Amino acid sequence: MKIIMLGAPGAGKGTQAKKIAEKYSVPHISTGDIFRANIKNGTELGTKAKAYMDQGLLVPDELTCDLVVDRIQQKDCENGYILDGFPRTIPQAEALDRALKAMGEKIDYAINVDVPDSSIVNRMSGRRACTSCGATYHIVYNAPRAEGVCDACGEKLILREDDKPETVQKRLSVYHEQTQPLIDYYEAAGVLKTVDGTADMEDVFAAIVHILGE
Ligand code: AP5
Ligand code: MG
Ligand code: ZN
Fold first, then answer.
1. 104 CA → ligand 1 middle, Å
2. CA–CA separation, 85 and 63 (whole Å)
């Protein structure tokens, strides 16, 4: 099962992708998480990516496409995967299609988690992210058991640098300009499914399971 998660920043792509990955036993591949891990480890890719991410801009396609194309050819992707945050531009979608074609494969579902901009800033300011395992919480909607500590691994939770309201606004406008056109792209490919992302997390997940099958 090969799935793409589409949606604005803060729509809940990561939240749902983690749950799908667990239920269907496929890897969760988040380009945002990969870049953040590189920043944390001080790699060259991390340094380059940070300059864009901190401003709410997209990391250039040349730094992004090969990374994902390599990743989906690894052994653990044999039975499928969930791409979260990739593709984010039409050239990225075309690069993915070329790679899949060469592998004789195709995307099964592009799940669009639909949330209006008005709900996004509120979600982002309450988000807390684990610095170690990538788990995501919300101080109101999905609070960790102990404040500031990850339930899954015990590490510290932080507010992401790009979750400041000014940066969130920038990310939203970048989303509308560069990423939203992918909705039509995957509609035309016949794989688009849209779910209402304003519902409770469990209800959003139930809607996705309904699409993917038990
Ligand atoms: P990335 O990490 O992908 O960020 P994003 O797309 O902006 O999305 P987020 O991770 O912020 O949101 P999400 O949809 O995963 O929501 P979440 O589940 O956390 O990318 C970061 C940056 O990296 C980009 O800006 C760019 O610079 C760069 N980058 C990454 N990929 C790239 C690419 N392919 N090309 C170029 N650049 C790239 O949920 C948000 C909050 O809401 C959480 O607190 C959660 O608990 C809460 N929540 C979730 N669902 C619900 C619900 N149903 N009800 C109430 N609260 C909810
Ligand atoms: Mg995310
Ligand atoms: Zn953790």
1. 30
2. 14
Q: Which atom of ligand 1 is nearest to the CA of 15?
A: 18
47, pLDDT greater than 90: yes
Tell me how far apart the alpha carbons of residues 196 and 198 are, in angstroms, rounded to a whole number. Answer: 6
pTM: 0.95
Q: Is the CB of 34 under 6 A from ligand 1?
A: no
C-alpha 150 to ligand 3 mean position (Å): 5
Q: What are phi and psi of 133, to 5 degrees?
A: -100, -5
Confidence of residue 77 (pLDDT cuts 50, 70, 90): very high
Task: Please state the atom number of ligand 1 nearest to the C-alpha of residue 92.
Answer: 34
Pairing between strand 2-6 and 81-84? parallel
Query: Distance (Å, rounded) from C-alpha 135 to C-alpha 143?
Result: 12
Compute CA distances 131 → 9, 52, 62, whole Å.
19, 19, 26
Q: What sign for the dihedral angle of Cα 167, 131, 204, 2?
A: positive
d(CA 6, CA 4): 6
